[in-house]
Specification:
By secondary structure, the protein is α+β, with helices and mostly antiparallel strands. The protein has nine helices and 22 strands. Strands 3, 4, 5, 6, 7, 8, 9, 10 and 11 form a nine-stranded mixed β-sheet that branches. Strands 12, 13, 17, 18, 19, 20, 21 and 22 form an eight-stranded antiparallel β-sheet that branches. The longest helix is centred in the N-terminal third of the chain and has 15 residues. It starts with a helix and ends with a strand. About 45% of the residues are buried.
Length: about 375
Amino acid sequence: MLSRKEFLAIVASMVASNLLPSNAFANDDELTVLSPENAQAIANNLLSCTKPGFTCIPSEPIKFYDTSGKAQGYIVEFYRADTPYGYVVIDSQTTGLISSYSFSKNRAGPATQLRASRNAHLNQSEMHVIMLNPLEFGLVDNDGVMRLNTNRTISLNNIPQPSSLPSSWGDVMVGMGEVYSNFTILKENYSGEVRGISEATVEASTGRYACAVTALMLASELHGISSIYSNPNDYLKLWELTETKPLPESAQTKPGIILGSTTNSKCGPGYSRFTKSKGTTTSSYYVSNALYSTFQSHVDSKGYSLIHGRLENGGNIGHVMTVQGYATIRQNQTGNTNQMLVVADGWYMEPVCLNVKAQYYSYIDATLLYR
């Protein structure tokens, strides 16, 4: 992951090169200042700054819209032959314009994910993409259903409108790139090196995916015990030792991939059994109704933990993530200050800041891991 200094240096160089206009905005159906050519130039320059010598072919920029139908930005994806190699999301409503990005082999961008969800090849003119939140993009089908790149489907009548309670995980997450450009970090600390494991990597390596197993697999890498890149079978071993179960057939939404669910309280004991089989002794402590200070003090002691949570306004879907740090951040425009956890969300490589305001969640629990 880029350091704050490195990211700001890249943004500064792009502004100096007139590749990052500071006043891009959306007006009715057309974006002004931020043209497709400008978007592609920004994406190319970001690639060359973050991955020198990394040669890929950019796609034609794909315009996306907000939920009211106004044009908002572009998605530029990168390929080598037919293999995806990353993407950049350029958002006119984000200060600094770069909402999110990733460059790595088999890293499909939102547009490619949406094509896969439709099982169809759609060209740029057929891609009327709607940004629901920074992590979720959708296409509307003829049946009045929006299919999202996160494999969710929602009725057009149920598209979230501005609300005091977040309805998706993307609503409570802020990418580190946005933090570095739009926020001031007032306080921060980390357990150690910050990293993530992407859902795409897990699925390609194992043919399975469960968020808790992914969080524990990353913990084992951070503890120097195992890595999915060198020992993908260890993911299956963790699956077994945590007694992770396949989701019901009706919830198996990815052909060829087994999706699973893990009982929260079984994560820690299963992890200890796994590490013992690797010759390392670990222990864990499960905390119900965990507070921000629970995670903060564990980070201060250089420990890693899991956060288990479910959004109050997000249905019945819970999620588990690896906590690697914390930060108090202040939004530069509004002055709003929030206490955030730095987590690997289990979907993407880049860690994010997670807002853990208690009123947003129906529950927050913790598994504290000790080595």
